[in-house]
Amino acid sequence: MAHSTERRNAANREAFGRLCAAEPVLTDVRPAIDVVPGMTRETILTSGPPLAWGDYVGGQRDAVIGGALFEGLADTREDADARLAAGEIKVGGCHDYKCIGSLAGIYTASMPVFVVENRAGANTAFCNMYEGTNPRRLNYGVYDDGVRERLLFVNDVIAPVIGEAVRRAGGIPLKPIMKRALHMGDELHSRNTAASLLFARELFPAMLDQTATRREAVEKTLKALTEDHYFFLRLSMAAAKATADHAHGVEGSSMVTAMAFNCRGFAIRVSGLGDAWFEGPHADVQAKLFEGHSEDEITWMGGESIIAETVGLGGFAQACAFPLQQYQGGTARAMVERNEELYAITIGENPDFHIPFLGYRGTPTGIDVFRVLETRITPAMDIGVAGRDGGQIGAGVVRAPLPCFEAAADAYDTRYSGG
Amino acid sequence: MAHSTERRNAANREAFGRLCAAEPVLTDVRPAIDVVPGMTRETILTSGPPLAWGDYVGGQRDAVIGGALFEGLADTREDADARLAAGEIKVGGCHDYKCIGSLAGIYTASMPVFVVENRAGANTAFCNMYEGTNPRRLNYGVYDDGVRERLLFVNDVIAPVIGEAVRRAGGIPLKPIMKRALHMGDELHSRNTAASLLFARELFPAMLDQTATRREAVEKTLKALTEDHYFFLRLSMAAAKATADHAHGVEGSSMVTAMAFNCRGFAIRVSGLGDAWFEGPHADVQAKLFEGHSEDEITWMGGESIIAETVGLGGFAQACAFPLQQYQGGTARAMVERNEELYAITIGENPDFHIPFLGYRGTPTGIDVFRVLETRITPAMDIGVAGRDGGQIGAGVVRAPLPCFEAAADAYDTRYSGG
């Protein structure tokens, strides 16, 4: 039966309304194995539409192998590779486990995850924790003794302190922190400086109880929480995932509810089109690289942090975050123009996330597949840039490729217009 | 002997260099009587060039009387008035005591003050503490049981906790906090949201020791530190005073080193012109008033927080702080234009305070009396607005009046050109 534009618009308004109504609350921090549905000791999650093991290449492949070694599922890289090929170690896509992956997005059973409940619905999302400021990270395709040590520090020191504080606080609503951080120079993807501080402030009173029993851990946790622009990103991602999932599954809606990279390309999911991924190629990134690195090193190893852009943050809130110029290049003028342009492809203006520079206009929120195709304006995303030899080598802005929107539109027409 | 423009420029470059070189460090919190040179039990400090008691009017007069009652120097308002008239209670100007007054700027002997040392020099500045979010404050000309209670809360709860933490931390350098806060939506006069959080973060670890002995006080202090846009203002003011004083007294310099209101008017001090104040009338303020208030209520009761503008902050850093629109009105465009205009009257661009929106250009810093007169552009200042019946009724932007610059230029010519 034909699905009129009017009906599509109504469905998109509903999906947009659900997106805006979500109320993500951090309620716990637990090992993935304890809380992530379907997680097993032998499962490793990674970013993007899942691939057959043989199709994972480069840093993303290295990262999965690193995860297997970290979790003790194999003794050597070769052993891990063989067990992955044999299916003894299973690879899953983060999104299918209600998780959301930063860059390569590696989750193993023992890794602690933030548990974020959407209080406006019944859904929960998870995100694991930031590995720290060192550019060599498992999520950037590196695994060595240093990476292992930093992952264990997260598992054994930071996660228990934060977890206990969060439980004691009775949960920490994330939206109020996010709203406020946007007025303090964050866009909640590549810059989370203020949000990290605001989160630390919420946690601090609830951490006081632990000073008697593990003061050093408390001090180290405080440092980790606030030393970097990135700590809150994982909370922003979990909140965005809980938010986007709340808007997923609206019959007839052409609103994007997830965007993700894997090592092979870029893909989107659409609210009214089930769990299918619509794929396209990688695009060029306008990057600012850390000193000593060059463009030819840039490589793709996955990434789902662009769930932020999916809910009206990150590239869709760049005009909140002029300090990003120092980190990812560009100019304030370009940031404003890019941000304003995105209103042409979104369903509405966010009622909670505001851009002070634009007179507190709500961020452009809810990407409509058809508006992207009509305008040829594609989502702009703030991303970290990985290097061929592993590790983060910079940051930048990338646009989503058109073909995934074309594929989604075709699927939409097939499903809703009987085409 | 004639003083050439060249010599004046050289002197101004020296004064500007000293202004930028200051390194304000918070080293202690103590009652004024213990640390402020010349302070006595019977002294009350207030903002602006000091006046004869009979010349203080309105809210500033009420505030001084309130200070006398708070300190127990008189039993009734009439008693206080009589003792002030008789000189038994002495009124002093904050600046003459190395203090800096917020609005009416009342200091009494028992009030705790931030002790800020300039590590690049030998000078120290002081500022007392924020009374809290209630718009009824002693500094806004109100004194009643509620005001008294909130002042005692500062004296007895907040100041001891912060003081102990600051001493334990071995002092807290303020410039790094201020630099960073400018990238997080603050201009460090009417918006100090990020700086308050950054300051709280510095204090956190040093406060952990006190949780065993006075946990409730620690929690209340944390709340006070971060619940409002204003807590850090007093630190910004003390830092700015320590900074401006470091640049004061440069022979031949026409750079402004202080600006202040009292209830009668506005005044400036100039680096090369000693401690004289050059006065002018009050100007109109472009204000956004809190609900329920009207323009005809606006009144002047002093103010020295514009020391922030004197060192390149506040109105001189408005393009860092677009969220101020909500608080004091205006538009982002007007803020940018106003901020850019001020480069025409300043000696240089601040090497530490940067404006992300302007491509990290340094804030316009060091107001030159002669450039103001040549361009007829006067300093723009972000201020709190007091109401006739006491209390804060809004906030806004005010320009300094030209006559005080004319008076300063005359004095400069007399002194340096034998005119």
Strands of chain A, total number: 15
Largest interface: A-B, 30 and 30 residues
CATH architecture term of the largest domain in chain A: Alpha-Beta Complex
Tally of individual domains of chain A? 2
Strand order, biggest sheet of chain A?
A: 5-4-1-6
CATH superfamily of the largest domain in chain A: Enterococcus faecalis V583 domain
Number of DSSP helices of chain A?
Answer: 14
Work out the oligomeric state of the chains in this entry.
homodimer
Q: Provide mean pLDDT of chain A, rounded.
A: 95
Task: Estimate the strand proportion of chain A.
Answer: 15-25%
- List unreliable stretches of 5+ residues of chain A: none
Q: Would you list the SSEs of chain A in sequence order as H and E?
A: HEHEHHEEEHEHHHHEEEEEHHHEEHEEH
Termini gap of chain A: 9 Å
Report the major sheet of chain A: 4 strands, antiparallel
Task: Choose one word for the global shape of chain A.
Answer: globular
Instruction: State the name of the first-level CATH class of the largest domain in chain A.
Output: Alpha Beta
The name of the CATH topology of the largest domain in chain A is Enterococcus faecalis V583 fold
Structural class assignment of chain A: alpha+beta
